[in-house]
Amino acid sequence: MNRSTDLPDGHTGGTPQASHLPSGATRRAARPERLGSRGRIGYPLGVPAPLVSIVVPFFAATLPQVTLLAETLATVDAQTCTDYELILIDDGSPIDVTRMAETHRHVRMYRQPNAGPAVARNTGIARSRGECFVFLDADDHLLPGALETSLAALAEHPDAGFVVGPREEMTFEGQPVPWHVAPPPPQSDLYTSLLGFDWYIIPPSSVMFRRAVVEAVGGFRDPWGADDLDFYLRAARQARAFCFQHPPVTRYRRYSTSSSRDGERMLTSIRAVYARQLPLVAGDPAAAAAFARGLAQLTDIFLDCVVENIAIAWPPVIRREPHGVRACS
């Protein structure tokens, strides 16, 4: 469910040499740095707080990962609304992308030892000053009007704690997908739908949150893997949403196989998330039914992922039927 610090390596092995990196990217020695320590890109004194904080956690270990990150940052540069700060959280990358990051607008970058997406996003929240948040994965794109559209939706719906917009989807190579991507449902109470896995928020950048909601739920928390679902469930219990069906605000990168997914980790993570929700649905038949429905669906999906992971690791041992395993991308 979460790819924010696990960028694909473009099907290449190993880590690129510094001479083969994009301009501004250099190899950094693998040494620990103090959690939350300030990067070389700071925040000028006296600058007023922006409307939006865009938080981008990343882990850059290969040339394709750095390239995808640069593509993502370029889509932020293209925003029609420029009243934002771009907060990059380097989650223990062995490659230093500081010089590349400096070529983009409104950037602040911080480094921390590798701790996973939940901790990285919380570092970004703690360093932010915006009135609203967008959490952007390091291989997805913001469409040019994303911030402007979501800010307008929040202004028009002051009772909403967050707004959710539609997404486009692309292949790993960045090409449009051939299928239709359904928009979010026209609902304001999303908790039961999310709990029942009747619908899901993907990617995180399809949502803009008010700061009050993010602070009220205490930011993100582990388990790594389903930390985004855990956050959405707590936000949906805290506040009403507004879902709009046009225009799309983000572009989500799809993968051709599930090999990038750790099915066992996701199963453990999903079960931990639902264990936290169990006391909250007691006495509410609709929520309890959604709990059972969602846990069953997600368990089936990630059990299929476990089977695929095993089949990829030991292909002579397990034979998969062509259509016998559900995709878990």
Shape: globular
> Over the alpha carbons, how many angstroms does the gyration radius reach?
20 Å
* N-end to C-end Cα span: 9 Å
- Largest sheet, strands/sense/barrel: 8 strands, mixed
CATH H-level superfamily of the largest domain: Spore Coat Polysaccharide Biosynthesis Protein SpsA, Chain A
- The CATH topology of the largest domain: Spore Coat Polysaccharide Biosynthesis Protein SpsA, Chain A
Unreliable segments of 5+ consecutive residues: 2-23, 26-40, 318-327
Mean pLDDT: 84
The CATH architecture of the largest domain would be: Alpha-Beta Complex
The helix content, as a percent range, equals 25-40%
Task: Provide key terms for this protein.
alpha/beta, 329 residues, three-stranded mixed beta sheet, disordered C terminus, Spore Coat Polysaccharide Biosynthesis Protein SpsA, Chain A, globular, eight-stranded mixed beta sheet, 9 helices
How would you explain this protein's 3D organization?
- The protein has 329 residues and is α/β, with parallel strands linked by helices.
- The chain has 2 domains: 18-253, Spore Coat Polysaccharide Biosynthesis Protein SpsA, Chain A; 263-313.
- The chain is 34% helix and 16% strand.
- The chain is built from 9 helices and 13 strands.
- It has an 8-stranded mixed sheet with strand order 2-6-4-3-7-11-9-12, with helices on both faces.
- β3, α1 and β4 (84-91) form a beta-alpha-beta unit.
- α6 packs across α7 and α8 packs antiparallel against α9 (285-313).
- The longest helix is centred in the C-terminal third of the chain and has 29 residues, at 285-313.
- The chain is globular, with a radius of gyration of 20 Å.
